[in-house]
Specification:
CATH superfamily of the largest domain: Amino acid/polyamine transporter I
Membrane topology: Multi-pass membrane protein
Distance between the termini: 34 Å
Protein name: Solute carrier family 12 member 10, tandem duplicate 1
Helix content: 40-55%
GO molecular function, one term: sodium:potassium:chloride symporter activity
Number of domains: 3
Subcellular location: Membrane
Number of strands: 12
Mean pLDDT: 77
Largest sheet: 10 strands, mixed
Strand content: 5-15%
GO cellular component, one term: apical plasma membrane
CATH class of the largest domain: Mainly Alpha
Radius of gyration: 36 Å
Low-confidence stretches: 1-45, 85-94, 725-748, 751-755
Shape: elongated
Number of helices: 36
Structural class: alpha/beta
Length: 948
Amino acid sequence: MTVCAIKGTAAHNNYNVASVFTVKHFCLDLLSNSASESRGSSMDLRRSSFYSTLDLVPQLENYASTLPHQKSRSRPSLEALRKAFDVRFSTSGNHISQQLMRCMLNIWGVILFLRLTWIISQAGILFTCLIILMSVTVTSVTALSISAIATNGRVISGGAYFMISRSLGPEIGGPIGMVFSFANALACALNTVGFAEVVRDLMQFGVVMVDSVNDVRIVGVITVTVLLFISLAGMEWESKAQILFFTVLMVAFSNYFVGTFIPASVEKQAEGIFGYHSEIFISNLKPDWRGPENDFFKMFAIFFPSAIGILSGANISGDLKDPATAIPKGTLMAIFWTTISYLAISVTVGSCVIRDASGNISDILIGNITDGCVGQGCQLGWNFTECIESNSCNYGLANNSKVLGQVSGVSYLITAGVFSASLSSALGFLVSAPKVFQCLCRDEIYPYIGVFGKGYGKNDEPLRAYILCYVIAVAFILIGELNIIASLISNFFLCSYCLINFSCFHASITNSPGWRPSFHYYSKWTALFGAVISVVLMFLLTWWAALVTFSIIFFLFGYVNYNKPKVNWGSSVQAGTYNMALSYSVSLSGVEDHVKNFRPQCLVLTGPPNQRPALVDFVGSFTKHISLMICGDIITVSRSWLVKWMNKRKVRSFYTPFSAHSLRGGARHLLQASGLGKLKPNTLVLGFKTNWRDSSSESIEDYINTIYDTFDSNYCLCILRMMDGLDIFDQFEIDDISDKCDSDQIKTVFQNDQGKKTIDVYWIADDGGLTLLVPYLLTRRKHWRSSKVRVFIVGDEQNMEEGRNEMVALLKRFRLDFNDVIVMTDSEKRPHAKNLSRFVDSVAPFRLHDEQQDGISVEDLKQSAPWKISDKEFEAFKLKSERKVRLNEIIRRNSQHAALVLVSLPVPQSDCPRALYMAWLDTLTCGLHCPAVLIRGNQQNVLTFYCQ
C-alpha cells in the first residue's frame, strides 16, 4: 500500500530526481514496504497520513503495548518522523455463558442444599428472604463496582486482586491479594466439607470408617486431592467438569420443583412434608430462634458464603476471551438468576415442610382430638408433641439437612445436585485462589513468595500455587465443622468486597481522565455504600474476627508502604495525589507518569491573558478541575494584576510572566522551568499568527522556531485559530479588545450551551491519542456535554467499511463515546485549481526564484533569509502542499456547520522551509466559520484500553 501511494504521488508530482529529500524518502518507503509485506495481509490496510508515508493513520494496534511478556511495536517518534525512520506494530478476543455458568455454580454452593432449610426454620421465611436480599445487595453493588473496574481497560489476570491493586495501588492491593487468596482457599475447604458431610451421611447406612467427624475429614481430604488433579490437568478439563456439574444442577432443581407439586404420602407427612399449605406458609413466616447463640446475624454469617461466587469469573479473567464484556453481563445475570432460585426455594420449601416432625407414622391423629397437641403438625392431623418437647425430632426444617431431597420427586437427584454444587464450587475456588496468588507473587510486593508465581504450560498454570492452596484447604478441612468455616469466610470476603467498592469510589472521585469504564451502570455513591455496609456487617457478624482481619490488612499495608515497591500501575491513588498537588502544591516527584493518568498540562503563550481571552477560555475548557494550565507572558514590565482578572473569570490557571527578548527564548525557558515536580507542562498552546504574511521576517522565524523547538523538546503542541475577526495571536492594545476580540463573542463560541454543537476531529496521523483526548475532555464540561463528536479518518473506497469498523472498535476500546466515524475516501484527489492557485499566490512573496537572481546565488539568499523557499524546495514539497490544500477542501466541505474543528498537526521536517510550513498551517485552517485547533501529541500514548 505504501509503494502504491509513493508511485502514484511520484508520478503525480514530477519531483526533481536530484532532490536528496525525495530520493531518501522514496528509498526508505520502499524498504519499509518490503518489510511490511512479509507480515501478512493484516498489515495491508495500514495507510499513511496526509503528511508523510511514515506518519501513519491512527490504528488500534498502536495502543496494544501494555500486555506483559510480549514484544510490541510502537509508532514512530517525533525524531523518527523528522529524520525518516519506519516502525511497525502488533494486535490483540466473549464467553458470557462461561462467566455466567461459573458464577452460578459458585453461588449455588453447599449452603443451598445443606443449610438453607435450617436457616428458614430459625429465621422464618420473611427474615430468610431479608438475609438473601441483604446478601444480594452487597454482592450486587460489588458486582457493579467490579464491572466498572473490569471495563476500565483490559484485566490481564489476577481477578479481584489485579483490579484493586491497579486501582488503589500496591499498598492496598498487596494486602487484599493475600487475604483474598486465603479466603478462596477457605471457600474450597468449606464446599469440600459440605460434600464430605453428604458422603458421610450416605455411608452411615452401611459403613462407618472411624466416627462422624473423622469420616468428614477423610472424605474431604480425598475429595480435594481429586479436585487438585483435575485443576492440574488444565483449564480445559476444569471447564468440562463445570459443564457437567451445571447440567446435573439444572436437573436437580427441576426435580425439586416438580416434587413440591406431588401429593405427599403418609411416610412423607410423618417426616413433616405436606405439600403446599397456607397454614404451613403462615406458620413459617416468623422466626423461631433456637439456642442462645442463634440470631439474625448468625444466620446471615452462615448464609453469606453462598453469595461469594460473584468473583469466580473475574478471578480467571486472564482465561476469558473478552473479560470487559463477559464479567459485567455474566456476573449480574448470575446474581439475578441465583437470587430468584434462592427466594423461590425459600418460599416453596417454607410452604411445604413444617419445622419439627418425628418420622413416626403412629403419630397421626385419630379424629379431631387436638388436646395437648403442640407444633405445626396439629392443624394437619399429626401429633409430634412428644419429640418436640423432648427435642428428639429428627425430621422437619429444623432437624434434617436432607429436606430438599425428601421434597423432590427423586431424592437421589438432589444428592447428585449436592455433589455438583459442592464440587463445582470447591473446584472453582481451588482454581481461583492460585490464579490470584500467582499474580500477587509476580508483582513482587512481598518477599519469599515469588517462587509460587512460576507458571507452566501453554496456559501458564501456577502449579506451585495450586499445591499451596491445596495444603491450606486440607488444613481447614481437618476442622470438619461447616458452620465454623462459613463464619470465618464471611469476614474475609466482606473485607474484599469493601476494598473493591472503595476502589471504584476512589477512582471515581479522583476525576482521572484514565477512569473511563465502558460499563456506565454504577455510581460512586453506591460503591461507597457497598464499602461501608461491608465493614458494618463484618463487625455485626463477628467483631473479633473483623478486628483480626483488619489487623492483618494494616500489617500488610504497613509493610508495603514502608518498602515502597517499584511498580507503577496508574492507580487512582496517583490520580488523587495529582488533585491534591493542584490544590495544596504537594510534590509528585516520587510518582512516575502513567498513560492512564495522562493530562494535557498546558503552557499557554497568552501574553497578557486578558488580551487573548479566547485562548484562555479554550484551554480552560479542558483543563479546569482536571489538569495544569500555565498562562505564559513574555514581558518587560510586571502585570501581577492579571491574576485577579483570571480569578474573576474563574480560570483555574497559574500566571507566569517571564522577561525575554524573543518569543522563542521565553517559550523555551517557560517549557523548561515552569511547574513543580510533576506539575510541569507537557503541552504548549499557541494562538495562530494570522498576520504572518505581513509580519517581519524575524517575527515569522521567531514564531516558527518556537514550534520547531517544541517538537525537538518532545512536547505536545496545540495551535488555536479563531474564526475571521477573532484573531488571538496578533498583538493589540488592551483598548482594542472590544473591537478585535470581543469577550461576549468568544463566550458564544466556547461557553454557549444552546443547541447541539458539533465537534469535528480529523485524526489524520497517529500522535498517541491527544487529538481524541482533548475533545473528550471538552465534552465532560457542562457547556459541551451535548456536543456531537465526529471523527474523520483517511481511507479508500475498497476498504472503507473495514477501516471504519476498525476505528469504531478502537474508540470502543478507549471507552470514548463519539457519535460517528467518517472515512475520507477522496483524499488522493488533486485539489481544485483555484484553491491550489490561491496557495501558490500566498507563498509567492516568500519564494526565491532562480531566474530573478542578478549575480547572487540562491545559497547566499538562503543564508540571509533561511525561512524563505527556493524553487528546488518548492518542487520537493509540492505534493505535500497539494495534500494540505486538498485536506482543507475536505474540512470546509464537511465542517461548515461545526462549532469546533480539531486537525492533526503535521510534524515540521528539518529541511522544510519555515515560510512553507507556516503556509501549510494557514492553508489547513483557512476559510472556516468556527475555531480550528491544530494539535499534535508527542507520539507517546495518552490513551490506553488496558487496565495496567
